[in-house]
Amino acid sequence: MSLNDFDPHTSPFLSHLIELRDRLLKAILAVLLIFLPLSFYANDIYSFLAEPLLKHLPENSTMIAIDVASPFLTPFKLALVAAVFLAVPIILYQFWAFVAPGLYKSERRLVLPLLVASTLLFYLGVVFAYFVVFPLVFGFLTTTAPVGVSVMTDISKYLDFILTMFFAFGVCFEVPIFTIVLVWTGFTSPEELADKRPYVIVGAFIIGMLLTPPDAISQTLLAVPMWLLFEIGLLCSRFFVQSGDDENYPKIAEEHETDL
Fold it and tell me: Could you tell me if 218 and 137 are in contact, meaning their C-beta atoms sit under 8 angstroms apart?
């Protein structure tokens, strides 16, 4: 007996599981459909991402592959990650379509813009890392090698490094969303966050130290944008402060009853 054999009207929990399964399958299918054409250009995509390092390598120095299968598998791994990256809007839409029926109207009006904004901020963080951080970091690191040491990076190690940096900057650029959500849920207030600004600045530099290479340039390039994004989120969060008045409860309850 499969999940499709159950009557969704008599088994609401199973109906949610069936819908969740369908949403996940659609998300996976979207990733595969994007991955298939990208796989034909896997080497070109890798060359594009390797360009910030190749520009700063010493003369007659190249990237190397120390594993037998690395020249084949590494570009394909990158193509798969790029497919997931490009499919993020579709994945988020499937998530939104699954949770939206259970939200109040007021919540739906807020969650959808936050999903769109968080996606754009993540992409912005990746673009910032590629065009701003990588040239400065690789320009610094390739000039610090001791005399007699040739700088030739393994392609697999390089891919792991840039993916880690992309993820770090993408997540850290979500600071405004985290700030708005904290205020919107009533966990804190803009005034309390403003009072904790010194701790936020110190925390940003600590995160920059942990997520970036051990050089002051990349740490600062991550910490300073995090601090500025926190200030932007703090400013925007003032529009999402819940009044906490009891008279708002009937309105929310009425919206919920209307949705049902």
Answer: yes
Residue 154: phi, psi to the nearest 5?
-70, 140
**CA dist list (Å): 259 to 97, 103, 112:** 15, 9, 17
Helices 42-54 and 70-86: angle between axes, nearest 10 degrees: 100
Residue 225 makes CB contacts below 8 A (sequence gap 6+) with 128, 172, 173
Q: Is 244 left (phi over 0), alpha (psi -120 to 50) or beta?
A: left
The amino acid at residue 151 is V
Orientation angle between helical segments 216-237 and 134-141, nearest 10 degrees = 160
Predicted TM-score (pTM) of the model is: 0.78
Q: Can you list the alpha helix ranges (DSSP code H) found in 40-104?
A: 42-54, 70-86, 88-99
Are 79 and 35 spatial neighbours (Cβ–Cβ below 8 Å)?
yes
Per-residue pLDDT of 71-116, as tens digits, reads: 889 999 999 999 999 998 888 888 888 877 777 777 777 777 888 8
The CA distances from residue 227 to 29, 123, 166, 221, in Å, are 38, 18, 18, 11
H helices present in 55-196, as ranges: 70-86, 88-99, 105-128, 134-141, 155-172, 175-184, 190-195
Rounded Cα distance between 128 and 106, Å, is 33
Contact present, 208 and 226 (Cβ < 8 Å): yes
Say how far apart CA 138 and CA 161 lie, in whole Å: 12
| Model confidence pLDDT, tens digit, residues 163-193 | 988 988 888 888 888 888 888 877 888 888 8
The Cα 98–Cα 75 span in angstroms is 33
